[in-house]
Specification:
Blueprint: H1 4-21, H2 29-36, H3 40-47, H4 50-73, H5 80-97, H6 99-110, H7 117-145, H8 152-172, H9 179-195
Length: 203
């Protein structure tokens, strides 16, 4: 007999695919129950609502992301530039190895369904705060030591834009850099936007 955990995980797995491919608004409880092979009351029993199911899915992968990031951080050392580069490497690795999860995040981080709009910022804040705290702490040290010639906010936004550019190129342009290519790309970005604080950079 299928236990509660396996049934709820199966529902989440099928719902993830529907939410990713069709979108939240276009996915109904009826579609979800058909895809998962369960009666609609089972979905309400485990998750309370479609919204509850959505948040259960996104919370699962956000927690996985946070744990993977924490594990990666153990290998970056205390040097702030190594920490920033470590985050860039992690972001690229994660995207290449978790394409669907990244697409899901981007879809619902950038285009919130109306039903979820009041909760989405709060829902994603822990992951966003984790990344922002990490980068800003490293940037402040780089500014103090002279390895960063721009102000904290400019450096932070530039780094986020760089990581976003990497993410979009992996997903939409099938970019698959090896470590050497990624480091070379990072060095070009760092020299133009962080160290010298001038010039344009296009990935």
């Amino acid at each position: 007999m299928e236990n509660k955990d396996s049934k709820s995980e199966m529902i989440k797995s099928m719902a993830f695919r529907l939410f990713l491919d069709r979108g939240y608004d276009a996915t109904t409880i009826r579609m979800l129950s058909r895809a998962a092979g369960v009666e609609a009351p089972s979905i309400y029993h485990y998750f309370g609502s479609k919204k509850g199911l959505f948040y259960a899915i996104s919370e699962s992968y956000l927690e996985d992301y946070q744990e993977l990031l924490k594990e990666s951080m153990k290998h970056w050392g205390a040097d702030p530039m190594n920490q920033i580069l470590g985050f860039v490497k992690f972001a690229v690795w994660y995207t290449m190895n978790h394409i669907d999860e990244t697409k899901f995040y981007l879809r619902y981080r950038l285009f919130w369904p109306a039903e979820l709009s009041e909760d989405m910022e709060k829902h994603f804040h822990k992951t966003n705060d984790q990344k922002e705290d990490l980068l800003r702490d490293a940037i402040r040290v780089c500014i103090e030591t002279g390895s960063c010639k721009v102000d904290e906010q400019t450096a932070y936004r530039s780094l986020i834009n760089f990581v976003d550019s990497c993410t979009f190129n992996i997903i939409f342009s099938n970019w698959r850099p090896d470590e050497q290519e990624l480091i070379e790309t990072w060095q070009l970005f760092y020299q133009s936007r962080i160290k010298l604080g001038k010039g344009d950079f296009e990935l």
